[in-house]
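Tokens in:
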């Protein structure tokens, strides 16, 4: 039976995520601000959690109530029969997103929703669900928009961008979901050489390798939210996992390379590559940008140099952006390069004409992915 779902995504990645979900078999895919709505059956829900690289979570909307203020929210939440969704033996956590004039503090709104649910349980069973914010059986999302509250079950649990292969992080690492989305935005395909000359903890080359080797990112995770739902189908999940394991490729079609000036972060990148099982496929080298040469006649570069706002000072980074432009022009003819930056002034220092500018958020920072074609 088909059901409506909603995938949450970073700002600017709605279209990329919609495309990915369509490829996974999602139907009726439409985008909205920081989310993608789609429909599908239980198999699709599991498949999206296992395979999607660019999204945070998949929510299953279950109820919608009016919520002008705290009191109306509580009363309307209590009108729902919560025994349809959880028993007092199930632990619970409530996340809140969005807000309105009266309900403008997500933490307190989440508490109100939680209170309405457990108060109903106490009245009915004289028992209530424990609250477990780390590992709840039921993770509920309450999204407030104008005077409406949409209540959804979170099928993912922990955000899907936390693949689980990356304990080691350099300075300002990209989220794995953003790295995967940048590869899509750059139209990189596994037959093209990939290079990140400022690779830090290796997120971009590792995500490229996972894609090229057709490794489902969900295989690294220990659990998903839907696995504690009453309708959890263990056989269906096992079938999808086996299918994913059997569809992995053993070799890359083209080299995937990362380099960084810091030997410390290259150590971390190698550790992450080992944890993700792609250590023997990607080349991760300690190298200053000044020494980087093109490894083939054509390919795709994606890098995110420091922005000056987060690490290092503006002046220190000017030389780095200038060097990027010089090296692209002198040594990478035939390549397409992308720079993700949150600093317009620094971007100008590249000194090349960007053929495309794509707005993308990196966490809370509005950034631009700049495309440079080198002839
Ligand atoms: C913002 S971080 C990149 C983060 C990376 N994308 C990740 O996900 O971990 C920028 C990286 O550029 C590296 N870097 C700065 N100047 C460099 C240079 N001249 N040559 C090579 N790497 C440099 C830093 O060591 C740092 O790891």
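Residues out:
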């Amino acid at each position: 039976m088909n059901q409506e779902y909603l995938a949450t995504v970073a700002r600017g990645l709605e279209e990329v995520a919609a495309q990915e979900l369509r490829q996974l078999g999602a139907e009726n895919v439409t985008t909205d601000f920081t989310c993608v709505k789609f429909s599908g059956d239980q198999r699709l829900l599991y498949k999206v959690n296992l395979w999607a690289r660019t999204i945070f979570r998949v929510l299953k909307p279950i109820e919608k109530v009016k919520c002008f203020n705290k009191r109306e929210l509580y009363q309307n939440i209590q009108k729902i029969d919560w025994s349809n969704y959880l028993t007092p033996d199930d632990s619970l956590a409530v996340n809140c997103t969005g807000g309105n004039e009266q309900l403008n503090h997500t933490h307190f709104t989440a508490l109100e929703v939680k209170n309405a649910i457990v108060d109903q349980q106490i009245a009915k069973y004289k028992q209530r669900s424990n609250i477990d914010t780390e590992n709840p059986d039921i993770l509920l999302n309450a999204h407030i928009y104008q005077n409406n509250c949409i209540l959804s079950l979170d099928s993912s649990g922990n955000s899907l961008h936390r693949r689980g292969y990356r304990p080691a992080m350099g300075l300002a690492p990209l989220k794995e979901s953003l790295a995967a989305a940048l590869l899509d935005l750059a139209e990189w395909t596994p037959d093209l050489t990939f290079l990140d000359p400022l690779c830090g903890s290796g997120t971009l080359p590792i995500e490229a390798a996972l894609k090229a080797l057709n490794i489902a990112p969900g295989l690294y995770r220990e659990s998903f939210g839907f696995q504690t739902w009453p309708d959890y189908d263990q056989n269906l999940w096992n079938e999808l996992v086996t299918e994913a394991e059997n569809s992995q490729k053993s070799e890359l079609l083209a080299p995937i390379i990362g380099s960084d000036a810091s030997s410390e972060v290259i150590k971390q990148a190698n550790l992450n590559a080992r944890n993700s099982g792609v250590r023997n496929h990607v080349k991760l080298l300690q190298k200053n940008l000044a020494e980087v040469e093109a490894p083939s006649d054509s390919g795709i570069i994606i890098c995110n140099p420091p922005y000056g706002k987060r690490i290092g000072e503006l002046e220190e980074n000017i030389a780095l952006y200038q060097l990027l432009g010089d090296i692209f022009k002198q040594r990478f003819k035939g390549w397409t390069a992308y720079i993700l930056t949150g600093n317009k002034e620094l971007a100008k220092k590249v000194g090349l004409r960007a053929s495309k500018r794509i707005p993308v958020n990196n966490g809370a920072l509005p950034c631009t992915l700049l495309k440079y074609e080198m002839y």
